[in-house]
Amino acid sequence: MTAIGYARVSTGDQDTALQLDALRKAGCDKVFEDKASGAKTERPGLADAIRYVREGDTLTVWKLDRLGRSMKHLIEIVTELEERGVGFRSITENIDTTTPGGRLVFHLFGALAQFERDLIRERTRAGLQAAEERGRRGGRQAVVTPEKLAKARQHLAAGLNVREAAARVKVGKTALYAALQQEKAAASSGSSHESYRREL
Fold first, then answer.
1. Which CATH superfamily is domain 3-96 in?
2. Domain segments of the chain as ranges
3. Starting at the edge strand that comes first in sequence, how are the strands of the sheet with 87-90 ordered?
4. How confident is the model over 82-129, as pLDDT tens digits?
5. Which residues pair with 52 in a beta bridge?
6. Which of 10, 90, 188, 192 is catalytic?
7. Which residues form the active site (predicted)?
8. How many DSSP H helices and E strands does the chain contain?
9. Active site residue 90
């Protein structure tokens, strides 16, 4: 079994010396490196390391966050390695998927990641349903039609404020305010033209 190391630093001015020392102490004779942020998609060093490892090898990192951009990405890489018969080891967290305990930890990670994705989907569905029940589809505010503007004016005349009137006619507060201002400006302009004609 051969231990292959992978090291990554986030910026060009950082040094991989700490990681390299830890990887060599862990028995890694060959180490691949990247100088890129965790969010960056292209990591040629990691791609080379994954291509290089063979069945029976173990890909080793200093910490879990050196390998994956996210928990989902981390699990995807380790699953791919596992399918090829390649182990994974993280020195700091003391995780080794070549052992039963290490495999159990990663199965738990996978279950938690799936649980998080399910929660996000559930919240999204609930949010869309709530928006639909309020008369808005896809989260977009309805357009202020002449009919809704007239109803909003009635609510305002009855003592409601703009926010309350907007909620009653199912439009956005900002959209209703803009429509009211536009109507006021148009009325003011019409009044000015009428006065000018009378003077003539």
1. Resolvase, N-terminal catalytic domain (3.40.50.1390)
2. 3-96, 141-186
3. 30-35, 3-9, 58-61, 87-90, 95-96
4. 889 999 999 998 889 888 888 888 788 778 777 777 888 888 888 888
5. none
6. 10
7. 10 (o-(5'-phospho-dna)-serine intermediate)
8. 7, 5
9. no
